Amino acid sequence: MHLDKEKKLKYYFDKYHLDEIFSTKLMEKLDVVERKKNAYLTHQLSKFTHLYILVEGKLKVEFYNADGKLSVFAFATPLFLVGDLELFHSQGNSIINTISVQEPSVFLSIPLEMVKTFGLTDTRFLGFVCKQLSNKLFESSLLKSGAFLTVEENLKRFLYHDAEKNGDVLVLEKREYLASILGVSVRQLNRAIKNLNEKGIIISKNKQVKIIDYNALVKDIEF
């Protein structure tokens, strides 16, 4: 889409009704940022300078522990806010997670100082931030409670909630990422995918997992 900045902003504002989120003051400070596939938007522990709203594309949110072990937290799709955790964190001068771009993506960026000046007193903007934090808390608690389920049950629940947001096809760039999100080994994940295939609940082919039987997917699973 070859549009200048103003036209791009108008396009995304109309698409997502962002005038219901941003005051005029904040709108004036927005910029459009584009990233290619496999690029990085943020790096863990780098300086926190901007909030980003994903309006097109897909992200991978990951965290490196002190021992260097990688944990994948989530795959994010629009509208996803980057920087809300840091905004209210006691160590808010640093980025918490490393975020990489899984497909060509577009963001709206806001300088942190402008957010502090105009956003923290704007009830509409704060409502949007709270909703984003609530979604992340819900997804985090969902994964933690999944520790008491079998791998297959945990996968079924993940697929159900992902389908609610992104449709019935899940694209798996690497199975290691999904295994990390679920807290299981790749071997356990592969076995669970194979079982769901054999039961006719999903079709797994190449890098795609498609749900074909929603009733069987949610059967006996507590949400």
TrEMBL record:
Q: Which GO terms describe its biological process?
A: regulation of DNA-templated transcription
- Give UniProt keywords alphabetically: DNA-binding, Transcription, Transcription regulation
Q: Which residues form the HTH crp-type domain?
A: 157-217
Domain Cyclic nucleotide-binding span(s) in chain numbering: 35-116
What does the record give under GO molecular function? Answer: DNA binding
Per the UniProt record, one Pfam family is: HTH_Crp_2
InterPro entries tied to this protein? cNMP-bd_dom, cNMP-bd_dom_sf, HTH_CRP, RmlC-like_jellyroll, WH_DNA-bd_sf
Listed name of the protein: Transcriptional regulator
